[in-house]
Amino acid sequence: MTTDSQMSKGVLEGCVMRLLKDDYRYSGEIVALMRANGFGDFSEGTLYPLLLRLEKAGYFDTLRQATNNSPPKKYYKLSAAGRERLENFESMWRDLVLSVNNILNTSGRREDSRTDDNDTGGTDSDET
């Protein structure tokens, strides 16, 4: 999926947060899940700044777990504050999708705001 970088920034943040809602995950797992769900260009270079920013804001609980023959891996899961932020994102996302779909499906006009084809713009056609 290729999208405008400014628009995708908030979307990617919300998606990563959703992946971390219920389970601790490490960066490689997050990248793999994002790619498997259509974000083919998603990389560690995209993920790490996002994780750092959200961690500093207090949206994650983290733990380090030792692995064989490599440094300990850092695992992330949403904190209570992170779950609240995710709920806000999901609400805003639903509203945005509804609004965009309204425009895409009606050529930019809402059904209830259309004028009658016989409407002459407020002038009475019987007047001479």
What would a concise description of this structure say?
With 128 residues, the chain is α+β, with helices and mostly antiparallel strands. It has helices at 5-19, 27-36, 44-56, 80-106; strands at 25-26, 60-67, 70-78. A hairpin with a 2-residue loop joins strand 2 (60-67) and strand 3 (70-78).
If you had to describe this structure to a student in words, what would you say it looks like?
This protein is α+β, with helices and mostly antiparallel strands and 128 residues long. It has one domain (5-108): Winged helix-like DNA-binding domain superfamily/Winged helix DNA-binding domain (Arc Repressor Mutant, subunit A). Helices cover 51% and strands 15% of the residues. The chain is elongated. It starts with a helix and ends in a 22-residue tail after the last helix. The model has no long low-confidence stretch (mean pLDDT 85).
